Amino acid sequence: MHKLLLIIQREYLVRVRTKAFILTTLLMPLFIAAAFVLPTRLMLQESGTKHIVIVAADSFLANSIKTELAGSHASDDYDLPQSGRRKFHRPDFDVSVETAPTEELRQRLTTQVREGIIDGFAWIDPDAATTRKGVYYSRNASDFFEASLVSRALRMALSQHQLTEHGFTPAEAKTLLGPVHVDTVRIDKQGANKSNGIGAYLLPYILLIAIYVTVLVYGIYVMRSVIEEKSSRIVEVLLGSVTPMQLMSGKIIGVGAVGLTQIGIWTVAGSLLGTCSYAFLHQLIGDSMKDARIAPIAVVLFPVFFLLGYATYACLYAAIGAMCNTDEEAQQFQFPITLPLVLCMVCSMAIIRDPNTPFAFWLSIFPLTSPIIMFVRVTVSMPPTWQIALSIAISLASLVGLVWLTARIYRVGILMYGKRPTLPEILKWIRYA
Amino acid sequence: MAFTLELADVTKSYDEFVAVDHLSFNIPEGEIFGLLGPNGAGKTSSIRMMIGITVPDSGAVRIFGQPLTRKLLDRVGYLPEERGLYKKMKIMENLVFLARLKGIGAPEATRRANQWLERLDLGRWAGSRVEELSKGMQQKVQFIAAVIHEPGFMILDEPFSGLDPASSLVLKDALLDLKKQGKTILFSTHRMDTVERLCDSICLINQGRSVLLGVLRDIKAGYGHSSVQLQYEGELPLLADPTLVASSNDFGNYVELRLASGADPQRLLALAMRTARIRKFEIVEPSLEEIFIDTVESTKAVAHA
C-alpha cells in the first residue's frame, strides 16, 4: 500500500509541476470562453450599410421590395424564439430602384459591383408575379445571408402585392405576413422553466468538449508514461521494488488525480467567474445564456463520468503503451481506441437535440461511449435514474474485466523490447500464468 | 556457509526458446561473484528471476536463505545494464524516490543521496535533471540508486560501462568498501579484466547453461601453468603444430598460447628461436579471457555436434 502511494505521488507531482499542466489549466477556460463568445460577438456586429440596386420593370413591385429591405427590422422578421433574436443583426440597406431592365444597365451595374461602388443588385424577372424568380448579383456569392434577405423581400413584396389584388387592405396583408411567436418551455421535475434553445444547446456542448478532451488527454498521458518508463528501462529497476499491478494502478490513479485536480480548478474558477462577472458575460453574449444553468446533479456527475471514462481509456492506453517501444509506434495503435471517442463527438449533436432516442440509450450503455454520452444526456434532460444507474454499473463491471486484461498485457509487455507484438502473441501474453 | 543467493535447477523458457536451462549456483555471503557469458547467454533472464521480475518455470530461487519474496527484495539492489532513471526528474528526486520504494524514509534517503553524490563527485549536480548529465555520470547515479538502501545483496549489470578510468577507480573502491562491510555482490559483465581483479568466484553460462563454475583461483589453477606468453619478431610456423600448441591468440608480435597436453615448453622455445627473435618468454596461468573464449568455443562445438 505504501509503495502504491509512492507511485501515485510521484506520478501526480511530476505532472502537476509541468508547464503543460499549468498552461492548459489556465488556457482551456479561456479557449472555451473564446469559442462561444467570439462567434456571438461576430454575429452581433453591425455589418454596415449595403448599397444595392433593385431592377424590376414593375416599379410598384420594385418599391415594395425596397420598403421591405429598408424599412422593417430584423426582430420583426424572424420566427425565432425571443431570446435568439438579438443574435442576428441584419445589415442596413441603402436601396435604389431602376425600372428599365436593359442589357446596357446590367453591364453598368455589373461594373459598379466589380468596382465596389455598389454591393450588389437584384435583377427581378419581368414576370415575377408568376415565375417568382430573380437573380442577385454580388461580389460575394457566399453571402447567402444578404441574398436570402433579398429573396425574402421579393417574396414578401409579391405576396403583399397579390393579397392586395385579392381584396385585402395593406394593413390586413401586413398582419397576415407578419411573424408568429413560439417560445420554448422545458418541462422537468422541478416544473416548467422557460428556457431558450441556444443556451440549452451550447452548455451541454461545452461540457461535452470538456469531458471528451480530459478523457482523451489523460488517457494519452498514461500511455506516454508507460512508454517513457519502458524505453528508459526504469521499469526494470521499479519492478525490483513493486509489482506490475502496483505500478500500473499507481500510474492510472496518479494521472487521474491530476485530471480531477484540473477539473476541480476549472469548476471553481468557472463558478466564480460565472457569478462575479455575470453582468460582463451578459454584455458580451446577450441574453442567450440567461437560462442556461447546469443542473446541480450534472456538477456531481461530471467527476463520476470523467473517472469512469478516464479509467476505461487509461487501461486501454496503458495496454497500448506496454505493447509499443516509442510514441510514434503507439500512434498507429491509438487510432482504433480513439474511434469510439470520436463517435461520441460525431453523435453528440443529434443526442443533444434528441437525448432520448433508442440510439442515444444504447450509446449511453455501451462501456466505451457510455461515460460521455450518458453525461451529455444528463446535461440536456435528466434520463430515468435506472438508466443512469445501469450505465454506471455496466461501466464499472467492464472496468473490472478491463483492468484484469490490461494488467496481464502490461506485465509482460513492459519487459518486451524490440519487435512489436502480433495479435496472437498478445493473446498468448494474456494466457501466461 | 551462509549463502546470499541460491539458484537450484532453475529453468525459464519463453515459448520455444529456453533462456535459462537447469542453472544452479550459490553465492556465499560477502563474496563478489561474477556471472559471465556471451551476449544472449541468459544472464539478464537469470537476473530477472533473482529480483522477482519473472518467475522460474521450474527450480527455486532463495535469497538470504529464504524462498524469494517481495519483502526480501527490499534488501536487494539492482543496477540494470541500460540506465533506468526518469530523465525529466532531478537527480535527487530520482534517488529519493527509488530509495523510498525500498522502504527508506525521505529525510534519511536525502541524507544518504547527498553523501553518495559527494563521494562520487556529483554533488553539484543534485538539482539537475538526469537528461542533462553525461552517460558516465548517469551510470554513477544509477549505481547510487542500487546501493542507497544499503542492500545486503547487490546485482550489478555492467557497472563500469561508460566510465572513464578515474570514475572506474572511485567505483571500484566503493565496491571493495561494500565488500568489507560484508555485502554480497553479483557482477554481470563481459569485461574479464575487472572480473579477474574483483571476483572471488564465477559462473560462466552459455546458451542458458552453466559451463564453468567455481572459485576463480581454483579454475585458473585447474588450467595449470600451461599457457605461454611470447614476444617475438619474425615468423612462428610452430603455432600451427597441433602436437605442440592447443590454441593460440596471435597479435603479430605478441602471442598467448596454450600448450597441447604433454608438450614441453622448452622444446617450444627452442623451435621458436629458429624462426624468430624472442624478446620475452613466460609460462603463466591462463587469463580469464582465454578461459572464457576457450570454454564458449568448446561448448559451441558440443552444441553443434
Describe the secondary-structure layout.
The complex is a heterodimer of chains A (433) and B (305).
Chain A lengths: L1 H15 L2 H26 L4 E7 L3 H13 L2 H4 L14 E7 L4 H13 L4 E5 L3 H4 L2 E5 L5 H22 L4 H8 L7 E4 L2 E4 L2 H35 L2 H5 L5 H33 L1 H8 L10 H28 L3 H27 L4 H6 L6 H11 L4 H29 L9 H9 L2
Parallel strand pairs in A: 1-2, 1-3
Antiparallel strand pairs in A: 3-4, 5-6
Chain B lengths: L2 E12 L2 E12 L3 E5 L6 H8 L7 E6 L2 E2 L2 H4 L2 E4 L11 H11 L4 H14 L15 H13 L5 E5 L7 H16 L3 E6 L2 H7 L2 E6 L2 E7 H7 L4 E8 L10 E6 L3 E6 L5 H11 E9 L3 H17 L1
Parallel strand pairs in B: 3-8, 3-9, 6-7, 7-8
Antiparallel strand pairs in B: 1-2, 1-4, 4-5, 9-10, 11-13, 11-14, 12-13
Helix pairs in contact in B: 3-4
Walkthrough of the structure:
- The complex is a heterodimer of chains A (433) and B (305).
- Chain A is built from 18 helices and six strands.
- With 433 residues, chain A is α/β, with parallel strands linked by helices.
- Chain B is an alpha/beta fold and 305 residues long.
- Chain B is built from ten helices and 14 strands.
- A six-stranded mixed β-sheet of chain B has the order 6-7-8-3-9-10, with helices on both faces. A four-stranded antiparallel β-sheet of chain B has the order 2-1-4-5, with helices on one face. A four-stranded antiparallel β-sheet of chain B has the order 12-13-11-14.
- Chain A binds chain B through residues 2-3, 6, 10, 14, 228, 232-243, 415, 428, and chain B through 15, 48, 51-54, 70, 73-74, 76, 78, 80, 82-89, 97-98, 100-103, 145.
